[in-house]
Amino acid sequence: MTALRGLLVVLVLLPPSAGAGAAAQVRDVGYRNGAVEITARLYLPPGEGPHPVVLFVHGRRGWGEQAEGQVQRIARHGLAVLAPDYHSPRFIPTWPESHDPETEKDVELALDFLKTVRAVRADKVCVVGVSRGGYHAILLAAKRREVACVVTYYGHMVNPNAPEPWQVYRWAPEIDRIAVPSLFIVGSEDFELRRMGIHRAFYRLLERGVHAELRVYPNARRAFDFRADQRPEEKLATEDAARWTAQFLRRVLAP
User: Fold this and answer.
1) Could you tell me if residue 153 is inside a domain?
2) Would residue 77 count as lying in a domain?
3) In which order are the strands placed within the sheet that holds 36-44?
4) Can you tell me the distance from the alpha carbon of 51 to that of 114, in angstroms, rounded to the nearest whole number?
5) CA atoms 20, 180, 70, 92: torsion sign
6) How confident is the model at residue 21 (pLDDT cuts 50, 70, 90)?
């Protein structure tokens, strides 16, 4: 893959992806990490498949209505999605400050579960991570061969438990082991430290010759895609980011 030459700082509405608007079949499923049972939701497009599949990793808020909306914006473009709830089984509260390393295996085992689902192509999976879910996404991309691409929405690009100097000046060492196309999405008014981390990860991938794309949405704040007080610009950014994400995913996951 060749690196993208430059930043994308635009807000342009894209045409709908092929298959957009098709209703997905939703199933509640689960798998185990030892004694811990991880519940998940599986979204399957119409038809027998096998379908291209995405692993969706929620953020610190946990699984809920907002995460459901984010998944549906992916699934409506004809992609299968598996969305594990990795907080509830470990009784992790909403908005935890520290990161529980045990959840990393909980999320990783979702890739193994997908291999039991005949309706999807589990040998080639893209990972979409939101906020802290972005950290899980880069961990998987650095470790698992079946991860074909990464998309992060305002993703955490460093271990949340790392000391302050690392949070401010560095990126997760896994960034240096990622070799798959990566798309970073963030609002121009997100937290400065988060934007800095995303920019560093993006430029590091470019430096290494890995295909990387960055979309910075003007006038978009933290969590612009599910805020209750969305600005008109943020509503447009939400729809544009969903279409851009779907086209990126389908391009990578095409047979």
Assistant:
1) yes
2) yes
3) 25-33, 36-44, 80-85, 51-57, 120-130, 147-153, 182-189, 212-221
4) 11
5) positive
6) low
pLDDT digits (tens, 9 = 90+) for 27-64: 999 999 999 999 999 999 998 889 999 999 999 998 98
Spatial neighbors of 173 by CB under 8 A, at least 6 apart, are none
Q: Is 164 a member of any domain?
A: yes
pTM score, whole prediction: 0.90
Strands 182-189 and 120-130: unpaired
Q: Which domain holds residue 36?
A: 25-253
With respect to residue 128, please indicate whether it lies within any of the assigned structural domains.
Answer: yes
Query: Are 152 and 80 spatial neighbours (Cβ–Cβ below 8 Å)?
Result: no
Whether the CA torsion 43, 122, 36, 103 is positive or negative: it is negative
d(CA 7, CA 222): 20
Q: How many distinct structural domains can be found in the chain?
A: 1
Q: What is the pLDDT of residues 82-123, one digit of tens each?
A: 999 999 999 999 989 899 999 999 999 999 999 999 999 999
Give bridge partners of residue 65 from the DSSP assignment: none
The distance from CA 191 to its chain's CA centroid, rounded to whole angstroms, is 18
The backbone torsions φ and ψ at residue 3, rounded to the nearest 5 degrees and listed phi first, read -80, 150
Between 110 and 255, the higher pLDDT residue: 110
